[in-house]
Amino acid sequence: MALDDRSYEEVRTKAELAKKASKQVARLSAKERNNILLAQADALLAATDKILEANRLDVARAKEKGATSAFVDRLSLSEQRVRDMATGLVQVADLPDPLGVALRKWRLPNGLDIAQIRVPLGVVAVIYEGRPNVTVDVTGLCIKSGNAAVLRGSSDAIESNKALVDVLTEAGEAAGCPHGAIQLIHSVSRESARHLMRMTGLVDVLIPRGGAGLISTVVENSTVPVIETGIGNCHIYVDAMADLAKASKIVLNAKLQRPGVCNAVETLLVHSSVAEQFLPTICASLREAGVELRGCPRTRALVEGVAEATDEDWQTEYLDLILAIRVVDSLDEAIEHIERYGSHHSDAIVTQDYDAARRFADEVDSAAVYVNASTRFTDGFEWGFGAEIGISTQKLHARGPMALPELTTGKYVVLGDGQVRG
Amino acid sequence: MALDDRSYEEVRTKAELAKKASKQVARLSAKERNNILLAQADALLAATDKILEANRLDVARAKEKGATSAFVDRLSLSEQRVRDMATGLVQVADLPDPLGVALRKWRLPNGLDIAQIRVPLGVVAVIYEGRPNVTVDVTGLCIKSGNAAVLRGSSDAIESNKALVDVLTEAGEAAGCPHGAIQLIHSVSRESARHLMRMTGLVDVLIPRGGAGLISTVVENSTVPVIETGIGNCHIYVDAMADLAKASKIVLNAKLQRPGVCNAVETLLVHSSVAEQFLPTICASLREAGVELRGCPRTRALVEGVAEATDEDWQTEYLDLILAIRVVDSLDEAIEHIERYGSHHSDAIVTQDYDAARRFADEVDSAAVYVNASTRFTDGFEWGFGAEIGISTQKLHARGPMALPELTTGKYVVLGDGQVRG
After folding, report:
1. Is B61 helix (H, G, I), strand (E, B) or coil?
2. Nearest 5 degrees, angle CA B184-CA B187-CA B192?
3. Euclidean distance between CA atoms A151 and A185, whole angstroms
4. Which of residues 67-106 of B touch A (CB under 8 A)?
């Protein structure tokens, strides 16, 4: 039997088990679901040594392969990080129950009562990269929202993920979690990911969490419903009427506070009437903080030593200490640039002009549009959702930060006493 | 240049034009959008002769090819049907505006104001079969909801569709509709449909309206977001505690009132404790109305001359005067059957038992679950939505009848005065 077939069997079997378990998870009460999360949090703390031991195997392998220190950092667990994962589960348990709410309810003239009730999606599958904490976060959010989870992590984190899922499963089942509700795919080949993308009828939604390559592979190959997440080629436009002190503070925050994440700014657009005043100062501050600058010809004429920005730069999510800069002659030109090159994630205008603020908010077609604030705020925790399973950059179902309600769907329940259609 | 390439060019060009126009449609006021629909309604009436002339070409071609009378009926227009299409546009114009509403709005402790605003999806593409009225319905719903439309109808209706889109475009643009907002694909090959399924970044949602073959081709091949519609393998379960008079009325209505549509019943499940009393009578009534019956062995033992139902029967959406019948021993068995063979569209229980009603409503995983009412009610008009672009059988974004709100998405607008993330 080919490797391909073996991974198909594993994915198929686990997706079927998850589907079966999902019916039972959906029927647990909120209290039962919360108790599972609390038991899992305790078990993670109790199993810290076992988890760290497994994680050391992954980290050693990554180092042998010459992984970057940023990569190793994301992969590495510590006592503190295990505690953080456990705390995360407790926090999710404390959130309001998203299920059972009537989204709308009305009575027809013929006496039929119609209610649209919030219910779990069923089976939520996630394909993700080398961060073991995602394993725990996704499991907690899925169980809390009444779903079963199918986890396809990266080969780099496989030992850590196995150890975590063992602990979560054992403690969860002891606390009443239906058998099969948490499935980890052990074959971490490309094939297993592709099989998961085609489990139509078994996987209700597939959420890819990772880089542009993973997202586009999933969009290209999936037959199951997908929610695209995370690519953030974010812009800040400093308008002719900007408060330049605010602009400076916002640009520095959006580039420097955490450059490796999706809501960091990647391109700065500056109106030509303030470029001469704004660019030399902001560029000096950015360089001082270690940012490499790439600019259009007008930027390069104003600031010495800026490399030439190519069309590829405008399209790139650097996730690094690099910033592209372009001088534009109007709000229209700024909006056009964002619509052409952006990823519809988070984009900001800095302006004191009421009309410019309103037009930017209306016309920029992104999940989050900011006026006079840092793009870094696009985040389920910052916005008070209490959790986040990803940031959707698509328009169907969920757009922007996704938390518990985005892991549910509506179902119409219609109660009658013998009505038929005339 | 191959035919394939020509249709690619057409689809690509029209999708790009629609995308460009969609930005302008989104900025029209509700009054402007309504005026376009009213002008289009008037123009349809004024162009009745031209439309009927074009339709005669389609109908003649269909008859030459030996199409069934049901097919020819769906394809045929008449003065009355043109009037109905115009009335439909006026009714949609009269519906409340779905745009601009804040779905939620809150202020963060740091002073940021966040609002989730309802905005258009952008470009809505629809692939559909030989009903010319869909051309008008979809155009009206798209313009009303601030979207541009890309229409890929069937070759059977191409002359009718061209005439309709000519009228809608000319009258629409004269009333202020942005140029390019209504795009009809003239190449009606399979290739043009496949190209449309892959216009990632240009098509914001693709809705297939048609039979099982079309839906599965779209799900299999699309890279753009899809909403699955319409396959309805619907069930009625007559419980041990059913009021059999109600059951009889509901079953006859759900099978006979309009057998060719997705919310008609296809399989009847009957609890064994009432089968002997219920089945002979209902089967006699169904047969009298011309219904062909296919049953499980226990059904066949109770009612003479019923053909044997195969596994394929349980899976089939007949859309015809055929009914599959199965005797089950419990509510669990009924739910299991529905979950295994159903299409998660509309399923009903007939019972006077409170617990059975509650369990059926909770555990059957369908877009609409009925207690003591006909499945035929699943319909945007019946439910008071005033319009319908299809009935979704998937769980993401929209589930059940889809009207104007389902053609929109949320967008977060965040207003600050210089906030940065700490």
Report:
1. helix
2. 95
3. 6
4. 106
- Nearest Cβ partner of A223 from B114, B220, B397? B220
From B135, B348, B345, select the one nearest A420 (Cα to Cα): B348
CATH architecture under which domain A234-377 falls: 3-Layer(aba) Sandwich (3.40)
Q: For residues B369 and A46, what is the distance between their CA atoms, to the nearest angstrom?
A: 44
Yes or no: say if B253 and B348 are a contact pair by the CB < 8 Å rule. Answer: no
**Domain(s) of CATH 3.40.309.10: residues in chain B:** 234-377
Q: Which among B377, B397, B418 has CB closest to A112?
A: B377
The whole-angstrom separation of Cα B390 and Cα B381 is 11
d(CA B248, CA B251): 5
Q: Which residue has the tokens 């999806």?
A: B121
- The partner residue sitting opposite B416, judged by closest CB among A114, A363, A371, is A371
- A-facing residues of B in 128-157 (CB < 8 A) are none
Looking at chain A, which residues constitute the CATH 3.40.605.10 domain(s)? 3-228+394-414
β-strands B390-392, B346-350 pairing: unpaired
The tokens 């071609």 sit on which residue? B61
Other beta carbons within 10 Å of B194: 18
- The helix/strand/coil state of A104 is strand
Does the beta carbon of A395 lie under 8 angstroms from any beta carbon of chain B?
yes
Chain A residues lying within 8 Å of B373, measured CB to CB: 112, 414-420
- Cβ–Cβ < 8 Å for B264, B251: no
pLDDT digits (tens), chain A, 422 positions: 455 678 999 999 999 999 999 999 999 999 999 999 999 999 999 999 999 999 999 999 999 999 998 899 999 999 999 999 999 999 999 999 999 999 999 999 999 999 999 999 999 999 998 899 999 999 999 999 999 999 999 999 999 999 999 999 999 999 999 999 999 999 988 899 999 999 998 999 999 988 888 888 998 899 999 998 878 999 999 999 999 999 999 999 999 999 988 999 999 999 999 999 999 999 999 999 999 999 999 999 999 999 999 999 999 999 999 999 999 999 999 999 999 999 999 999 999 999 999 999 999 999 999 999 999 999 999 998 988 899 999 999 999 999 999 999 999 999 999 999 99
Residues of B in contact with A421 (CB under 8 A): 253, 257, 374, 376-377, 382
CATH code reported for the domain at B3-228+394-414: 3.40.605.10
